[in-house]
Structure formats: C-alpha cells, structure tokens
Design goal:
The chain has 1 helix and 9 strands. It is mainly β.
Amino acid sequence: MTNKFILKGVCALVLAVSLPSWSAEICPAEITTTQAASDLPSGYGVAEDRYGPHRLQRVGVYHGLVKDMGELVPDIQKKTASTWKFGKQSKNDVNEVACHYSRTRIVLTKALPVGTKSCTATVDPTIFGEIKSFKCQ
C-alpha cells in the first residue's frame, strides 16, 4: 500500500516537472541604452539628451525567428489587451518575441519556450503607446 502512494507521488512529481506550466513577464518594462556618434562633420561636438530609460512601446510575436519577419496578428484584439494563441508545436518549431522600446532602435528578442500556449500584451489606455505588461504561459 505504501509503495502505491510513493509511486503515485513520484509520477505526479515527474508530470509536474515535465509539463510546461509557467507564466512569465517576457519583455522588460524598460531598458537603458547608450549611443555614440561617428564621423562627425568638422566643427561639431556631441551633447547628450537626457530622456531617462526607454519604456516598452510595442511587442511583436513571430512564428519563427524575428529576422525572418513572420509577425503574427493577435487572435484576440481588445482596447486594453492583445492575445496570441499557439497550437501544439514540435521541439523544432520556434516562436520569438520582439520587444520594441520608445526613442531607440534597440529591439530585444527572445525565443518562447516550446509548449507556450498564449501570450497577452496589456496596454495602459491612459498613456498612449505604453504596454503595462507582456506575459506568456
């Protein structure tokens, strides 16, 4: 009898570890960058603008790699949220996310774990062009 309980417990633990059960913030809310000028015209100097950190402005979800430009349209589009849903994928299938930030050309990219079921971008309706969160599960 005790062996049955131990076996059930081990099976439940293996199942819990092997199933993709996660929810994570994918894109940082803000990033800091540096910029440098090159090949300045004669007589010019460089001064820096102080804008502070760059806020998350847009998220792109891609089937495949971002560089292959296969951006997906959200399955559900509302005023304050956009949701992308994914079907079953093999270990060779890749979905990536591109995190776009205000006042910079820097784009962060990240592969989504195999087994990701959906991603949701929540928009702050009071601040134009600002994403409050981008989470996947």
